[in-house]
Structure formats: structure tokens, C-alpha cells
Amino acid sequence: MVTEMTEDIVIVGAGIAGLATAVGLHRVGLGCRVLERAQELRTTGAALMLFPNAWRALETLNVAHKLTPFYAPFKTASFTSLSARRTQKVPLLGITVSEKLGLRSVHRKALLEALAEELPPSTIRLGSRLSSIEQSPGESLITLHLEDGTRVKTKVLIGCDGNRSLVAQWMGMSEPINSGRSAIRGLSVYPDGHDIDHEMVQFLGDGVRAGYIPINKKHVYWFVIRTAHPVDEEIWKSPKLIKQDVTDRVAKDWPKEYREVVEHSDLDTLTQAPLFFRSPLSLLFGNLSRGSVTVAGDALHPMTSDIGQGGCTALEDAVVLARNLSLALRKNGKIEFDHKAIEEGLRKYGNERRWRSAALIAYAYLSGWVQSQPWRLVKMFRDKICYGLMFNRFVDLVDYNSGELPSFKLA
Ligand SMILES: Cc1cc2nc3c(=O)[nH]c(=O)nc-3n(C[C@H](O)[C@H](O)[C@H](O)COP(=O)(O)OP(=O)(O)OC[C@H]3O[C@@H](n4cnc5c(N)ncnc54)[C@H](O)[C@@H]3O)c2cc1C
After folding, report:
1. pTM above threshold 0.85
2. How far apart are alpha carbons 79 and 300 in whole angstroms?
3. Per-residue pLDDT, 88
4. Where does ligand 1 bind, in terms of residues with CB under 6 Å?
5. How close is the Cα of 219 to the center of ligand 1, in Å?
């Protein structure tokens, strides 16, 4: 039997972008339905770094206070050049704007759950994979076909379905590009506690950047970002092989504390995946909405993970999207789902996110590129000039405020 549903707003994907957008809409009085293909909230990646821009957005969404007491901000980072075997300790003063907005490493599960808890029950429909989208010419409703046969009609569609977004494809956005680099991530578990200092530790080598970041006294998040290697194809499905590749090959000659962290990995959390990005030019000159359809998060701006901004930027999107849509739909103290108003709200959202998204993608790509070049001249430029210049720009980029949500009195 085919089930039919009708919704005002549908969000596809219950990742950071989808859940944060749903919370943003909820805060401005707009209900929505979130369709997620998985049977539970996906926590791939185990943890992530949240910078001041993310904390500001989470404050606006009224969720930050649920996380900050459990995660201490970082005061310092240490960078080790693997070729020169030189370690530099850097205070994170520029990035840590204040204790409240300080750079923290957070469990993904905790972030997703903190967002999901803010939504009315039954907002999230799990096991609901979008398989196709249909809209007849002149028709304002969009029809979504789910894999289980359900048909969902909606007035607004927001694709938060990640970097291989079906919604972005339907909108005609350019395909994400494989950067030629890949990332391995894992979570190390210390049931009796660890004695690792509470700082971000990074290692920079030829074509590789790696690090480990304590989350709390029992968990340490670690990663390797490197030029793609033929072995990637063989090992990506096996956490055991991924771990072995890091300890026995990639990090064989690195300081032993790195390998020790990797040795403590919980294999269930280990993943390896190629890094994709969308051409920044296509965002600057393309349409970021099509009628009453738009995208947010990785579906809008897939970027390489070199600056840890994909999730932070998804939280910014949520605030900007909820603000623009609610401002467009409010008429005389009431919400009116007028097609022209929806289009206008989404167009304004796209315009507000265009330059920001393009700048972050370009910056992330550039910092990854500079790190991955083996040539001496590039390395000299990188070490002597680039890092200083880029770090200042980075501090500006992450000290971003996506603004407030309007508060209205309903008539
Ligand atoms: C190695 C690495 C390190 C990173 N570190 C950081 C960091 O420190 N800080 C940071 O801010 N960001 C970081 N990122 C980026 C961050 O992980 C992503 O930008 C973020 O998870 C994007 O969230 P999203 O909700 O847009 O997409 P996703 O997390 O991909 O969520 C998309 C959701 O949509 C669902 N979905 C997809 N297709 C369908 C469909 N057809 N029907 C229904 N549901 C569907 C998926 O199941 C998923 O739940 C990192 C990324 C990598 C790879």
C-alpha cells in the first residue's frame, strides 16, 4: 500500500545540518518533517571540532548550554613538523574568543542528540530514504518518492542530505569534485582514563596532516588527512585494516605517542573516505535555490576537512535559513505559505550564504593543497609565509556570527 503524506516543510537528512535547520525552524514557529534514510541518527566521524562560529549558532538555537559544560575549551595547540622533528606550541587566543565560544572537540552523538531533543516528537522519520523528486511545471507542491513507497507532498524542500545530495542534483548544482585526498578518523577509548594533555596535537608531513584531540578524560579523537593512496581502495571497508595501515605504514616513523593513541581505537568508529568539495565558482555564480527547494550543510558546500568547518558552517546555514524563511512567510502576524514568498526567502538565504560558503571551500582546499605539496620551494613558502598569513585569515573566518532569529508574536 502506498502511503501519502502532506507537509509544509520537508528536510531530507538528519545530520548536523538537517537537525539544526529543523531546530531553527521550530524556534521561529515553523514545523517541519525530517526524513532520514538510516534507522538511527548517524554518528559517523565520532567527534568534531566546534569553533566560535558554531557556538554562536548553537547559542542562537538555544542548544549550546547543553554541550559546553561537558567539553573543556582548548587553550593551546601543538604542531610538529615531521621532517624537521620540531614542535611548536601555539596559544589559541585568536580562536578562543571567550570561554563560552572556545574551540572544543565534541562527540557527534552528543551534538545530534542535543539538537534532536529540541524537536517535537515524530518530527524525525527514520528509515525514510528519498529516491526521487518530482514537480510538474506550474505546480507549487513538490512530490518526494521514498524508497519504501511513501509519497510525500511538500511546499518547501530543504536538502540536508550530505555531499552526494540528491536534492542538490535535482536542483542542477555542480557535482562535488574528488580532491584526490582522503581522511581517516577514529575515536580512542581509555576506560581507566588517559593522561594526555588537553590540547590539540597536530603532525605535519609530506602530503599528510594528522592529529589527536582529547574530548574528555576517556575519549581521544584522532585523524589522518593525506594524499589518496592506492591502498585506500582495499582497506576502506575494514576498520582493522585501516588501523593497521596507520600504525604500520602511514605513522610508522612518527612520534610513538601518535601510534599509541591509534592503538586505543574503538574499531566501530574507524572510517576512511575520500574528500570532496564543490567548485567555489559554481556557488558564486550558480543558483542556490530552485523555486521552493534549497540545500544546506554538505549538500550546499561540501569542503575538504582541512579546517574542520563543514559542521560549523552547517550550523550557520541553519540559523540563516530559518531567519530568511520565517521573515518571508510572516504576513500580519501569521504564517502564510505563499509560493512567491517561499522563493524570495530561499533566494535571500542563498545570497547570504554564497560568498561565505565559497570562501570556506576555497580556504579549506588551499590549506590542504599547501600542506600536501612535496616541493621544497612550496614547503619553504608554506612554513615561512603562508602559515602566518593563513592563520590570521582563519581566525577571522571562524570568528563569524550568523546572526539572530527573529521573535514574533503570532496573531
Ligand atoms: C575527516 C573529517 C573531519 C572533519 N572534522 C570536522 C570538524 O572538526 N569540525 C566540523 O565542523 N566539521 C568537520 N568535518 C565536516 C563535517 O563532518 C560535515 O561537514 C558535517 O557532518 C556535514 O553535516 P551534514 O548534516 O551536512 O551532512 P551529513 O553528516 O552527511 O548528513 C547527511 C544526512 O542525510 C542522510 N541522507 C543522505 N541521503 C539521503 C536520502 N536520499 N534520503 C534520506 N536521508 C539521506 C544521511 O544518512 C545523513 O544522516 C569533518 C569531515 C571529515 C571528513
Report:
1. yes
2. 31
3. 83
4. 12-18, 35-38, 42, 45, 48-49, 129-130, 160-162, 166, 183, 185, 223, 297-299, 305, 308-312, 314
5. 21
Which ligand 1 atom is nearest residue 49's CA? 8
Q: For the chain, what is the mean pLDDT? A: 91
Cα(185)–Cα(281) distance, integer angstroms: 29
Q: Which ligand 1 atom sits closest to the C-alpha of 13?
A: 34
Mean pLDDT, residues 383-391: 63
Q: What pLDDT score was predicted for residue 409?
A: 59
pLDDT in tens, 65-97: 999 999 999 988 888 888 777 888 888 766 666
Q: What is the pLDDT of residues 299-331, one digit of tens each?
A: 999 999 989 999 999 999 999 999 999 999 998
Nearest CA to ligand 1 atom 7: 308
Sequence spans of domains, the chain: 4-71+107-178+277-375
DSSP 370-401: HHH---HHHHHHIIIIIHHHHHHHHHHHHS--
The b/e string for 141-178 (b: 16+ C-beta within 10 A; e otherwise) is ebbbbbeeebebebbbbbbbbbbebbbbbbbebeebee
- Calpha distance 212→373 (Å, rounded): 22
CATH hierarchy code of domain 4-71+107-178+277-375: 3.50.50.60
